[in-house]
Amino acid sequence: MNKKTLLLFSLGLFSLMACSSSPTAEEKLAENCENGALDKCLEGSWNLVGLYDRMDLSAPKVSFNPTSTFKFNADKTFEFTLTSATTPSYVAPECNYDKKNCSPTQFGTWRMDGSTLYVKPTGDCMPIAEYPFTITVDKDNLSLNGRLFHDTEICGVGSHLVLVENYTRQ
User: Is the peptide bond before 121 cis (omega within 30 degrees of 0)?
Assistant: First the structure.
């Protein structure tokens, strides 16, 4: 091959390589979620939308402002930052975390087994145990089939609603 042909061929090959790009972080996240890599899909920070009646997911029964956040770290630790409920009909003044000596941020570990999320809080706020949740998750939304940190927020409610936590990704 002559030098001119080799140069043109090299430039063409370089142009093709430059056009192909790696997936963005958001594309990789969506791919992980779609392909069932739930642990990778779960990693990151989530804002609590509210507590919902499992039988009526149209609107939260308990709201939070500012929102509580749940952060799942790649090293399988978590941080949960608690805020207070703001929906007056579900807030019981005699039930709050100050009386349980709970700090606003809870820590612990997490793991996935199939579609079950196990969280194990550490510290003296809750009994140290693995709490299982069947989750529904995609790149933008996370739903737990229960609640973990919010029993004291609703302990004065006379109703026995089954409340679940719904989150959106930060």
Answer: no
pTM of the model: 0.74
Topology at the third CATH level for domain 38-169: Lipocalin (2.40.128)
Q: What are phi and psi of 20, to 5 degrees?
A: -80, 135
Over residues 26-43, the pLDDT tens digits come to: 898 889 888 888 999 999
Q: What is the pLDDT of residues 125-142, one digit of tens each?
A: 667 789 899 899 999 999
**8 A C-beta contact, residue 116 and residue 134:** yes
Domain spans of the chain, in order of start = 1-35, 38-169
Alpha-carbon distance 89 to 146, whole Å? Answer: 20
Q: Which residues pair with 62 in a beta bridge?
A: 51
